[in-house]
Design the sequence.
């Protein structure tokens, strides 16, 4: 088998179909070297021009040094800004590199580098955004709260985009350079979902492929306890619905207030017809407040729907 040198691969003319494999990392000195080594081995076997880009999100350990030593291009954040900002940096760097295909994977080794060609092939077959679905593939280990949170998130995203998405949270995905250029990520909380929503909205072709999710060695740096994760997951679901389905989001609350106000009003009218009194002015005021609040929330939902991104 012909061996293509790393120097050649990392300096291949960009117009020839450059693939950039991106890895966001935060204090991953124990795994980053192996992750990069596995990526390089697979890409060399694939015999396609590629580059490995590591975004070090303010690590306090030797993550950046080890990544450079393993042959990756490293971009460092001075502070830990979070995954969303790391993802935005990835997109900017890939646009600079004129990447034709971008593969996004994690630094903890839970996604198998051997399955990168599956994502690349799906993009080469005409898909713009390819999601590596853990729920269509095999999951070695995932906490119950995280599993349920991912399923709820995916159901919410499926409802928003009008197509079935089984794993909207996946960190293993591939997409075209056009997606990186034309779909900026604005959210600081739901970047993985935002890319899906905006891609579907802009009529790009989105596809899921089954992948393997391995058991993590050591503790997750993203989930310190299940209760915290559950709260954040629900907050993010509400944020997604608020931003992309505002009429439905505000409509639920608005019509809820209206229903309570109208029910209270009917009860007051019933009391008035049978006893000749409304049962106290505060009840009338409360009914009116519920109705007015409900109408305002619904109207706000219509306005937000008109202005939604």
Sequence:
């Amino acid at each position: 088998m012909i061996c293509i040198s790393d120097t050649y691969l990392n300096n291949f003319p960009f117009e020839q179909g450059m693939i950039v494999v991106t890895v966001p990392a935060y204090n991953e000195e124990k795994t980053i070297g192996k992750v990069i080594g596995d990526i390089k081995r697979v890409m060399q076997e694939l015999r396609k021009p590629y580059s490995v880009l590591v975004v070090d999100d303010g690590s306090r350990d030797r993550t950046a040094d080890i990544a450079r030593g393993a042959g990756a291009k490293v971009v460092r954040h001075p502070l830990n800004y979070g995954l969303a900002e790391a993802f935005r940096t990835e997109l900017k760097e890939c646009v600079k590199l004129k990447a034709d295909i971008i593969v996004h994977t994690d630094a903890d080794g839970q996604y198998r580098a051997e399955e990168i060609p599956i994502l690349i092939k799906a993009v080469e077959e005409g898909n713009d955004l390819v999601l590596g679905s853990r729920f269509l593939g095999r999951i070695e280990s995932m906490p119950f709260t995280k599993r349920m949170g991912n399923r709820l998130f995916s159901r919410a995203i499926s409802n928003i985009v009008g197509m079935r998405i089984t794993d909207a949270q996946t960190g293993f995905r591939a997409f075209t350079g056009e997606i990186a250029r034309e779909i900026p990520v604005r959210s600081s909380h739901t970047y993985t979902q935002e890319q899906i929503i905006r891609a579907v909205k802009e009529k790009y072709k989105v596809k899921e492929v089954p992948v393997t999710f391995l058991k993590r060695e050591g503790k997750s740096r993203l989930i310190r306890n299940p209760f915290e994760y559950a709260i954040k997951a629900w907050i993010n679901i509400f944020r997604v619905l608020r931003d992309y389905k505002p009429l439905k989001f505000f409509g639920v609350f608005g019509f809820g207030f209206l229903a309570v106000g109208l029910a209270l009003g009917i009860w007051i009218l019933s009391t008035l017809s049978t006893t000749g009194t409304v049962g106290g002015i505060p009840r009338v005021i409360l009914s009116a407040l519920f109705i007015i609040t409900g109408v305002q929330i619904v109207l706000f939902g219509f306005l937000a729907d008109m202005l939604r991104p």
Summary: The radius of gyration is 25 Å. The CA atoms of residues 135 and 147 lie 9 Å apart. Confidence is low (pLDDT under 50) at residues 1-15.
